[in-house]
Amino acid sequence: MKRILAITVFVVLLTAQFAFPVNAAAGSLNYTALGDSLAYGILDLSRGGYVPRYASYVQADTGSTVLLNNLGQNGWTSTQLLNALRTNTIFRNSLANSQVITFDIGGNDFLRIRDSYQSGTCGGADNQDCIRSTVATFKANWSAIIAEILALRSTSNTVIRTMDIYNPFVKQFPALKFYLEDANNYIAATSAANNIPCAKVYRAFNGANGDEDAGDKGYISPYDPKGVHPGELGHQVIADLFRNLGYATGQTASSAPVLLTEENTNRLAAVDSVTLMRDPLPVFTTRNFSADGHTRITLFAANLALLPGENASTAVTAQAEDSAHRIYALTVEHAGTVPNIDSLTQITVKLPDELAGGGDVSVSISLHGTTSNKALLSIKQSASN
Question: What's the rounded Cα separation, in Å, for the pair 295 and 188?
Answer without folding.
Answer: 26
